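Annex B. Sample input.
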Amino acid sequence: MSDRINLIGIRAFGYHGVFENERANGQEFLVDVIIDTKLVNLNDDLSKTVDYSKIVDLVSFEITSNPVNLIETLAERIADKLLDFDKKISALTVTVHKPSAPVSAKLTDISVSISKSR
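Annex B, continued. Sample output.
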């Protein structure tokens, strides 16, 4: 059994998408990261848990760099980088939201979620 850290709505501006205008103009993306880890016997010591400020920095960097066509690819890249970054992460779910996706109908959000574990 594991404990959970929730990082919801990490916002950054990126240039991901299959259409030329998405690559030229960019748009805001939001990412949620749900991390499974062990939080017992921490003794108030940051080094014994997942440093979520570093996770936010890593996710923001991935949103703002190296554009990809699909948000599925972005979600998988973020998940892989996070698992490599901190061995205390036993499993995670990354959700990439693209609320301004160029679709023919008005909608609140489009998102993709990817879950991975060790």
